[in-house]
Amino acid sequence: MSSSKKIRVLVAKPGLDGHDRGAKIVARALRDAGMEVIYTGLRQTPEMVVRAALDEGVQCIGLSILSGAHNALFPKIMELLKAEGVKDVLVVGGGIIPEDDIPGLKEAGIGEIFGPGTPLDEIVEYIRNNVKF
Amino acid sequence: MSVADLVEGVLSQKRLYLARLISMIEDEDSLALEALSQLYKHTGKGHIIGVTGPPGSGKSSLVTRLTAEFRKRSKTIGIICVDPSSPFTGGALLGDRIRMQEHSLDDEVYVRSMGTRGHLGGLSRATSNAVRAIDAFGKEIIFVETVGTGQSEVEVIDVAHTVIVTDVPGSGDDIQAIKAGIMEIADIFVVNKSDLAGAEKKVTEINAMLDIDPRERAWRPPVLLTNSRKGDGISELVDAILAHLKYLKESGDMQKKGLQRSRDELQELMKYKLTQELSIKLQGKPEYEKAIKLIAKRETDPYTVAEKLIAEFLFSESR
Model's pTM, two decimal places? Predict the structure, then answer.
């Protein structure tokens, strides 16, 4: 168990939905894959997500949202990350996000969207292969 | 980021640089140690408060409440919370920050979660260097929250000026209270979740333990009742913390501890460097592998080989 180069991931629930089962399952899976996971809890504003990501020095942010507000919140988060000088952070999302919205989100800088039913090792592999140190 | 960037960034209180430095410390990046070397003269100002106790005793909630109270008194705060890393996968669920939501957008509060990464004792190997970084950054109060501890994880005493040991009502009895280890390291005892049955009893047991302590101690640890969910007892706890700091300064204990700490730090670093140096010199040397085989066959012994190798490789010119 070496101490160098661990992948640190922020699992966040932006917005107002209270459904955190999915986020917790993903958090568990990432932990079991050897990553350090910081779970923010519910009802995070974009500012809170970015502050946590900055302070914790994470390489990846996972955003879980089921309320439909992703088109407003995800780009806002990307904007704030840029404004704070946070570079090279992989941002992924999950929850209830219609396929039609995915291209727009990727254009805003989101790496990938993992919808319901995505195998957990797919998420783990994607993060492992795409984080930058 | 260069060492100069890191140092300048930390000294001008730019969060991004502090966060980056702590990441590099955890990754054992040699540039981080260079930066710390330059930042060292700016450390030694913060009051470092260790918070330790069994899992579920409310350490994080207590730290959150204490932070709010210290913020009312205009202090700037740094918080390091340590959680255990899996002995099987190396991963960790760092779940202390989630209790500290109310401070998430306070610019004067910096929170960092760390996994133990295999280290025992209650903290991680990088914790004391991370504390130094936060100290150099200028935070006046630095909380170090350990993992949920049992009876023997006492490492926090090497890092903190003031150690708070938390407990909850209903656990153990008077014999538990006099066992060695964690019960000895407290500068302040806090019985949290005071609404639960047995709270007063626990306070009595701890006080009874302190009453029969044969050591002549100038500072008798106060035993306080708190309810971190409701916020009861927090102001009194802050007063006790400040009283302890005053005691440390007036009694000269602060200076004594500082001297001992510097001695320990230096020895720790020298040990580390020596081991590193020796590994580099022994790497790929056929004598080394040969010696190991001979030891396994009992044709020589490790005590003799150790002496010989050190004399040959450590104290000689590099080959």
Answer: 0.91
